[in-house]
Fold this protein.
Amino acid sequence: MAQNGFPLLALADWHATRDTLHGYARVLGTIRGALAPKQKHWWHISLRVTPNGITTTRIPNRETGFELRLDLSTHHLVIQADHARPTQIPLDGQSSAVLVAQIMSALENLGIKPDIDKTKLGDSNPTHYDQAAVEPFWRALPRIDTILKRFQEKLDANTSPVQLWPHHFDLAMNWFSGRRVPGTNPADEEASEEQMNFGFSTGDGGIPVPYFYITAYPLPAELVQTHLPPDAFWHTQGWTGALLPYAALTKTEHPEEKLIGFLQHVHSVGRRLMK
């Protein structure tokens, strides 16, 4: 672990385990989306960070409710229904299809029957889950969540929750300028609102290392000409945005200042150019 508290988090060290955990997050998001009241921008399918993992938060179901939580400190999927003892399912590398069957069985015992398409959550082949490899991620995730919320606190206009998206497995938040995008249908919330997106990814096929990113919609042409703070650069392959490698935080004495400085700098320029 780095001396500043940010653990090393090379994707190559836990790629298979990360993919397994990503699949588990998709299960939680699918079940939440089936029962939670619809929210704009699909916020009803997103997840939240806890001190020890990832949660759906409380999902209402008729007169009662329940929470699904990936506890990464004990490596269990925890089902907590209102006024009931928790049910714990060990995370041992079972496939997403097997995990969803285990969850659905436990929920059925509670009288809860989400209507989901299980075939879209993967096959039943075992996967890889290394408990030791998960530890750096669950130690880093709450710190990143906290920094994004501190950055969010200083923003004007509307923002989304800081949320973990199960489909991309990235932790992110949006800032909305309050203006509509000219020429779009106001009823199309995905395309009609001018916004910037600030997030963290554990890495992907295009960028195989963990990184922080900032994108803007619509993207001002001048934004990508903006000089960025040290270690940050503009990514233009496949998608365009400002990028700061996570590894840069492990090498500085002041990681929070470095990350917030990056976020604030690009936001201030983007906010000015998007007017």
